[in-house]
Design goal:
Layout (H helix, E strand, L loop, with lengths): L8 H12 L3 H8 L3 H9 L6 H11 L3 H24 L8 H9 L10 H12 L4 H13 L2 H5 L6 H19 L7 H16 L5 H11 L3 E4 L8 E7 L5 E5 L6 H18 L5 E4 L9 H15 L13 H11 L3 H10 L22
Parallel strand pairs: 1-3
Antiparallel strand pairs: 2-3, 2-4
């Protein structure tokens, strides 16, 4: 267990001096070193060398490797405590929600009271050796995420980096043996995917993940910090496999299914061009061509070429359900889109938004 203090080897040596009732000078004489060196060892300012450890073993009968271990542990703890002290200066990057999330995931035990360790553990999660390196990594990440700025949402960069990193750490076990990404097969699988989400149940997302896996696409659900305003991202592995990483927010089929197909649209039309994100609140609508394409793709596949036109006069769940079933569409997706397009009041027909069982990876 790591401590918030460092024990110098000199403390053990002082105990031996006290037990043996030997002075520093007497010990120096027996060791054949200066009294100043002995005093430095006792204070922790003079490191114990291999040669001194051998001499200490002869005089104290405490094994040389014990002295070496004492010394190594002391220097390790000093370096760690110095580092945590420096890390504490950057404690502001860890929001309360992110700290709670990291503790809940078993990635740290630290709180704001031990902010240096909290920041250090966070860097372990995201895989950066220093705050400076992390900040450069964040800047590189944000430079590839145009929608993050355009949507006007307040997304905590540290939370985003931690969430993405957890997905990447989970990924190796998922790509073991996965087939090469096949775009043609993914396009051919779209009708089957659409049919499976038309009626959602406890196994829908597991079935979808299996079908996508046959196309070389990884679908993963990674828990996110509280109030994390993202539905999901599309990213690519080093082997060229697309990954749809989702938060599982708003566990209703209207949101989950829409986001899933939106991200499939990014895969098919954007290719491996970096990370793209989809936000929970899209009332303002997409502002760039990539988001428009992904939305149009999802709408066409899930709702059909007629779009929402057949539902224009629908004001009841029964009417929407009847048309959706006739069209082979997911009723929850239709309601979600009608809400967003102001075709239906947000208080209406929410009974068609069905809860989904989310197969979280961690």
């Amino acid at each position: 267990m790591k401590t918030n203090y460092a024990v110098a080897p000199g403390m053990y040596l002082q105990e031996w001096l006290d037990d043996e009732q030997i002075t520093q000078q007497a010990l120096a004489d027996r060791l054949g070193i200066s009294r100043k060196t002995v005093n430095g060892i006792l204070k922790g300012t003079q490191p114990i060398s291999q040669d001194t450890a051998i001499k200490l073993e002869r005089v104290t009968s405490i094994p040389r490797d014990s002295w070496i271990r004492f010394e190594a542990k002391y220097r390790e703890d000093l370096a760690r405590l110095d580092d945590e002290s420096e890390m504490a200066n950057s404690a502001s990057i860890i929001t309360p929600a992110l700290g709670k999330f990291l503790r809940g995931a078993g990635l740290t035990t630290a709180t704001k009271r031990n902010s240096g360790k909290l920041v250090s553990d966070f860097l372990n999660v995201v895989g950066y050796g220093s705050i400076e390196a992390y900040e450069k990594g964040v800047n590189r990440m944000l430079s590839t995420v145009a929608t993050l700025k355009e949507a006007g949402k307040s997304v905590d960069p540290a939370s985003m980096m931690a969430w993405i990193a957890l997905g990447e750490k989970t990924e190796p076990s998922e790509i073991d043996g996965i087939t090469t990404y096949d775009e043609a097969l993914l396009r051919a699988t779209l009708p089957s995917l659409r049919q499976r989400v038309a009626t959602t149940d406890d196994t829908t997302l597991i079935d979808i993940a299996r079908q996508l896996e046959q196309c070389g696409v990884i679908l993963q659900f990674i828990p996110a910090p509280d109030r994390f305003p993202l539905h999901g991202i599309t990213r690519w592995t080093r082997n060229g496999n697309p990954v749809i990483q989702m938060t599982g927010r708003r566990k209703k089929d209207g949101f989950i299914v829409w986001t899933l197909f939106h991200e499939i649209g990014h895969i098919l039309y954007d290719g491996n061009t970096g990370i793209t994100l989809s936000f929970i609140d899209e009332k303002q609508g997409p502002k760039n061509d990539s988001e428009k394409r992904a939305n149009n793709f999802a709408r066409k596949v899930l709702v059909g070429p007629e779009g929402l036109s057949p539902y224009r006069n629908c004001k009841s769940s029964a009417a929407i359900l009847s048309i959706a079933q006739d069209k082979g569409a997911c009723p929850g997706v239709v309601v979600n889109l009608m809400h967003r397009k102001r075709m239906l009041d947000y208080t209406r027909c929410n009974d068609l938004l069905k809860d989904m069982t989310i197969p979280f990876k961690i």
